[in-house]
Amino acid sequence: MNRPWDFNARLEEWAQAQDGEEAKNLAVFAELAVEGGIAYRRERLAGHFTASSWLVSGDGRRTLLTHHRKLGRWLQLGGHADGDEDLSRVALKEAEEESGLTGLSVEPQIYDLDRHWIPEHKGVPGHWHYDVRFVVYAGDSEEFAVSDESLDLAWRDIAALAADADADESLRRMARHWLERTLS
After folding, report:
1. Distance of CA 20 to the CA centre of its chain
2. Each residue of 90-112: pLDDT tens digit?
3. Whether 146 contacts 132, CB under 8 Å
4. What would the pLDDT profile of 71-80 be if each residue is shown by its tens digit?
5. Cα dihedral sign for 37, 42, 48, 50?
6. pLDDT 10s per residue in the chain (184 long)?
7. Exposure pattern of 112-141 as b/e (b: 16+ CB <10 Å)?
8. Does residue 58 contact residue 138 with C-beta atoms inside 8 Å?
9. Sign of CA dihedral 78, 80, 86, 90
């Protein structure tokens, strides 16, 4: 399949920019990518690719988070690939659908990788999400609309999120990386 971007090349590019601790995810993501199309479908019950957005405000100081309906936690916007192997496109689509925002843009480079367990829900057995995350930028309007997938949405200060011991660890990691990136 001719894809707009080469996933394996993006994984290698991402790994070269990481320290040893975070680069350890590369092997499990590359291993899943070898499976091809099925790895991008939720029907692969052992685990599958998902895509998320680190959705940042125009001033770069806030990120839009969802109070996830199924998981009951504050997380980044994202969802299943449903067969689409262009995960940057999936991240952008999910950000638009879950926020109601228009005029969003996505960086094609991988921003973060996170493999996390999803518990059983409504007959779907527990499984792994291999979440590939991208930076998505808000457009002119930052007025969001809460979708059915969320209990709520909120813009959160990135510096405060990085320091919030109660926040999801992967959110704190993305916040720290964003601060390092914008301060350098």
Report:
1. 21
2. 999 999 999 999 999 999 999 99
3. no
4. 789 999 999 9
5. positive
6. 334 457 777 777 777 766 666 667 788 888 899 898 999 999 999 999 999 999 999 999 999 999 988 778 999 999 999 999 999 999 999 999 999 999 999 999 999 999 999 889 889 899 999 999 999 999 999 999 998 888 899 999 999 999 999 999 999 999 999 999 888 7
7. bbbeeeeeeeeeeeebbbbbbbbbbbbeee
8. yes
9. negative
Q: Which residue has the tokens 């518990």?
A: 119
**Look-up of token digits 């916040």:** 175
